[in-house]
Specification:
Largest sheet: 5 strands, antiparallel
Helix content: 25-40%
Number of helices: 9
Low-confidence stretches: none
Number of domains: 2
Structural class: alpha+beta
Mean pLDDT: 89
Order of helices and strands: HEEEHEEHHHHEEEEHHEEH
Distance between the termini: 30 Å
Number of strands: 11
Amino acid sequence: MKTMDEYFEEWRKTEDRATTQKKSLKKRVPKTSCFYFGWFFEESVPYFEIETTSDWSKKELKAYSIQGMELNFNHNRLTLKQKDISTNFVFQKMCVQIIELEQSGKDQDDATREVLTEYIDFFKKGRQTFGPEKQAGLYGELYLLENLLKKFPGKETDVLDGWKGPLSSYHDFQFKKGSVEVKTTRGKNPIQVIIGNEKQLSHTGHPALWLNAYSLVEVVSGDTLPKIIQRIESKIKPKKRALRRFVQLLSMYIPREEFKTLERGFNVDKIYWFKISDGFPAITQIPKGIGSISYGLLVNEIKPKYVSNQDKCFAVIDL
């Protein structure tokens, strides 16, 4: 089974071909028998087509055809069409989850109905729970993103293509020559970051991997998500594709407009960089019988030989 990011890349290729050929195109999803990635050229929006095993009534289609998305059914073909391009990646993530659920053993119709039910609140209400921990985590990623954009002027699209955090990838930034996992903590002592699974600090199969950790202090007069988002948007505004991708990635959390209401302020107290290599204190394999793990990593107790810095990381990434 492909990863979510690999599916997104396949969909992006369909979009690029449709744009180049100036016509709407679709492509069967790799290693599936009933799903298609599509792109409507005239409207510049994605769609997802499913070969169904049952009929979908007009009443049911209407129930799911809500703000941001519409459904059409014709001759055992169900088409999910995105309408609001600002939530493009949310739509695509939903479709990929339908594929994953079908590949886990569900009938494609049942998988589609189950995932649509889960996502209906997002498209209706236009918001998700986005509490303090998520805000701090996103701030850390945006802090690094802003520094990458400063370091690599003219490479805005490449930088944005490398930001994978919103797409639930194993590492928050992935480039050809190296990847970065970003962590934040608001605790002062001990300074501990939470590693969510065994893949986050696994450097196997990667040219290079760094851990970039931020110790944040919350202050009323500090930097906020609306401020850093506005700075990034101003910097990449001339690059329309990069700007569109940035807005789409933000929409994986909450709609772009909702960020204006988040007033939590952050100051970066300490910044840590570590080069991940053999012997680094990380759990990278799960014993048989264990379903999932997460653990705390004490950044102050990591041996000096693993300590790195931003300049060394950027020199290797070298966009």
